[in-house]
Amino acid sequence: MSRSKAPANTYATLREIESRLKSIKNIEKITNTMKIVASTKLSRAQRAMFDSRAYGETSDEIFKKAETQPASEGNKLIIVSSSDKGLCGGIHSQISKAVRARLALEPEADLVILGDKAKIQLARTYASNIVLSFNQVGKEIPTFAEAQTVADQIFKLGKKYDSIEIFYNKFKSGISFEPTSVPAFTEESLKSSPNFSAYDIEEDVAEDLTEFALANAIYWALAEGHACEQSARRSAMDNASKNAGDMIGRYSILYNRTRQAVITNELVDIITGASSLQ
Questions:
Q1: Over the stretch 149-205, which tens digit does the pLDDT of each residue have?
Q2: Mind telling me which residue stretches traverse the membrane in this protein (predicted)?
Q3: Does 141 lie in the same domain as 24?
Q4: pLDDT of 97-132, one tens digit each?
Q5: Position 158 in a domain
Q6: Can you give the residue range of the structural domain that contains 253?
Q7: Is residue 87 included in any domain, yes or no?
Q8: Which residues contact 30 (CB under 8 A, 6 or more apart)?
Q9: Count of domains in the chain?
Q10: Domain boundary residue among 234, 251, 269?
Q11: What is the model's pLDDT at position 3?
Q12: Which residues of 87-108 are buried (b: 16+ CB within 10 A; e: fewer)?
């Protein structure tokens, strides 16, 4: 009785292994394809990132020469640059961790979040701080028009902020990034700069300059974050493909061993049956 049940169980196990092996091979094809797509998008994202740095660094040069400093008191705003997409490692959780660390020091600060991933994570503990959120921003290559739209919506909130800080992932290399923050100076901070008198700037121009500088900083953060996201996704898909390859190797060995055991059991049954007839 036991000998008749063993082959059925073995065959079922063999079919399960074959099905699992086929599934893993399909997953490997998908992750390899996603890696290739991410690599292609990364090169485009890096070009956009270098362009945005030219905008951001040129804008920052004015504030550096004016020795502008952010206000230490008053209403504070934190802008978080993230995205809506996953499958890119811990890139979103790291930026959320950095923001939570800052909110522990500034619990009354308002939050403007770009991207659903960071919003979901930060809303668990700081939902009341979120005053504005965006999705589908920087879905492809970020543009200055998108950054300008975000900046306009922030000014339309009608609340006067004394200091603004932007958190984003800074691109360091093809395999590494770092959560970073940069200040976005307000009109009052610019006017109170020690070297502001060196610039012949009218009142309305100073306001326009700070608004333009905020849009520049947001564009810079979006472009840097997008490049980091594509880089992280390429690394994640590369690791997933390697893991799938390792699993395919292990399951192939298991499949061959199980198949050999099935064949051996069938030969034993045939030989035993033939011997009993003699």
A1: 999 999 899 888 989 999 999 998 877 889 999 888 887 887 777 777 666 666 667
A2: none
A3: no
A4: 999 999 999 999 999 999 999 999 999 999 999 999
A5: yes
A6: 2-35+236-277
A7: yes
A8: none
A9: 2
A10: 234
A11: 45
A12: ebbebbebbbebbeebbeeeee
Beta strands at 76-81 and 176-184: parallel, antiparallel or unpaired: unpaired
Whether residues 129 and 19 fall in one domain: no
> Do 14 and 257 meet the contact criterion of CB atoms below 8 Å apart?
no
Give yes or no: residues 95 and 229 share one domain: yes
Indicate the pTM of the whole model: 0.81
State whether 221 and 269 are in the same domain. Answer: no
DSSP letters along 220-275, please? HHHHHHHHHHHHHHHHHHHHHHHHHHHHHHHHHHHHHHHHHHHHHHHHHHHHHHHH
Is residue 146 within 8 A of residue 137, CB to CB? The reply is yes
Question: What do you get for the CA distance between the two ends of the chain, in Å?
Answer: 23
Contact between 245 and 192 (Cβ < 8 Å): no
Residue 45 lies in a domain: no
Which CATH number do you get for residue 258?
Answer: 1.10.287.80
Give the whole-angstrom CA distance, residue 262 versus residue 74.
Answer: 76
Check residues 275 and 257 and name the one with the higher pLDDT: 257
Average pLDDT of the residues of the chain: 86
Do 60 and 187 belong together in one domain?
yes
> Could you report the per-residue pLDDT of 194-226, keeping only the tens digit for each?
777 666 666 667 778 888 889 999 999 999 999
Length of the chain: 278
Token pair belonging to 220: 């810079």
